[in-house]
Amino acid sequence: MTIRTLTILGATGSIGASTLDLVRRNRDGFRVVALTGHSNVAVLAALAREFAPEIVVIGDEARLPELREALAGTQIETAGGAQALIEAAQRPADVTVAAIVGCAGLAPTMAAIEQGRTVALANKEALVSAGGVMTRAVAQHGTTLLPVDSEHNAIFQCLAGNDPAHVRWITLTASGGPFRDWAADRLQHATPAEAVKHPNWSMGAKISVDSATMMNKGLEFIEAYHLFPVGVDRLRIIVHPQSIVHSMVEYRDGSTLAQLGPSDMRVPIASALAWPARMNTPCEPLDLAAIGTLTFRAPDEVRFPATRLAREAVMAGGAAAAVLNASNEIAVAAFLAGQIGFTRIVQCCEDVLGSGVPSPPQCLDEVIAVDREARVRAHEALVGAL
Ligand code: NDP
Ligand code: MG
């Protein structure tokens, strides 16, 4: 593999750490251009000292002096604020890993896409919100968009060399999250500490709560709709508690291709970093004899209505997915702050979607406007003012 230049947007997070762990083990394969974080100055500065990027950017501009102090005596450029994140994403890099959480990552991810190189996308909220605005930019700039989300990376691998016209089903697997066996009346008492304790994956707080509500699978359903042009009627979800089969594609001849692997994000990240080649990871080989049993069951949309809301948002088209994502971000933050109960998260999304959806956004600024307005309405829904 020739040396690749690499930018990581969201380097201080869980995906950022997994990506940099791979880079650390393949130092000859990559040169880091830019690293960004939002609030975690100590981790960002330590990563900068270790990987010597051209520039590091802290999203929260108020922390820039602290970052500068931490990097005093190095040659590394520093910057802060939302515009600086965009400028970092515009610096030429062969591969940009988009790993900021939430719609906050949309503008920098779009800036990376506009370079026309390769974007390894973890930041699903950006694609869910922008939808066609992002996929059109990918096509317009000739960008290679590689999914990092484990399910979509699995589907991408299962589709390789096949014509999407022959696809009968794309099946997204879902672990079901920590509450998959909880009775409906117990769910309303679920605490943030219980929600972030995912049975199989170690992830950031927001996506962990999304896994618990199944909104993560809802967002992934929308993500798959945009990444793989087979139509909403050919997408479905199945609960697979062991998280070994990461997703499947069934073709018209009855062949089903699946991608399997450990529940370790370094596997799909490595697949994207090295694509179309392969690189080593430190993950243990898959031992199916030790795992023994793989089980599957239909999702329960009565206890976990998030996937229904996501499907309805896709069918409604336009701005519905952006509204769903924005309301979910607000409600998850309120839940994590102890302000609302667990089941209010998805209820809030349904209330906001029910109160009206703006016309379809045609460009990045319009997506951001829809997102902002939906956030205001989600706050209103949470205080009962909607
Ligand atoms: P984390 O919360 O661990 O990390 C989020 C990153 O985004 C951090 O670098 C954080 O900076 C940064 N960030 C947060 N808010 C802002 C902001 N307003 N502006 C700029 N940067 C910001 O999340 P994860 O790594 O778990 O997830 C990242 C993305 O990848 C999400 O979209 C998630 O859905 C997706 N994903 C994650 C998986 C996982 O296993 N973790 C699996 C599949 C997808 P700081 O920490 O410095 O504040
Ligand atoms: Mg996933």
Quick take:
This protein is an alpha/beta fold and 386 residues long. The protein contains 18 helices and eleven strands.
Description of the structure:
- Helix 6 (124-130) crosses helix 12 and helix 16 (320-336) packs across helix 18 (364-382).
- 48% of the residues are buried.
- The chain folds into three domains: 4-147, NAD(P)-binding Rossmann-like Domain (Rossmann fold, 3-Layer(aba) Sandwich), CATH 3.40.50; 149-263 and 288-302, no CATH class; 317-386, RNA polymerase sigma factor, region 2, helix turn helix motif (Rna Polymerase Sigma Factor, Chain: A, Orthogonal Bundle), CATH 1.10.1740.
- It is 45% helix and 15% strand.
- Helix 1 links the parallel strand 1 and strand 2.
- The radius of gyration is 20 Å and the shape is globular.
- It has a seven-stranded parallel sheet with strand order 4-3-2-1-5-6-7, sandwiched between helices.
- The chain is built from 18 helices and eleven strands.
- The termini are far apart.
- The chain has 386 residues and is α/β, with parallel strands linked by helices.
- Bound molecules: NADPH dihydro-nicotinamide-adenine-dinucleotide phosphate and magnesium ion.
- Magnesium ion (MG) binds next to helix 8.
Please outline the helices and strands:
Blueprint: E1 4-9, H1 14-25, E2 30-37, H2 41-51, E3 55-58, H3 64-70, E4 77-80, H4 82-90, E5 95-98, H5 106-113, E6 118-121, H6 124-130, H7 132-141, E7 144-147, H8 150-159, E8 167-174, H9 184-187, H10 192-195, H11 205-213, H12 215-227, E9 235-239, E10 245-251, E11 256-260, H13 266-274, H14 288-291, H15 306-316, H16 320-336, H17 344-354, H18 364-382
Parallel strand pairs: 1-2, 1-5, 2-3, 3-4, 5-6, 6-7, 8-9
Antiparallel strand pairs: 8-10, 10-11
Helix pairs in contact: 2-3, 4-5, 6-12, 6-16, 11-16, 12-15, 16-17, 16-18, 17-18
Bound molecules: NADPH dihydro-nicotinamide-adenine-dinucleotide phosphate and magnesium ion.
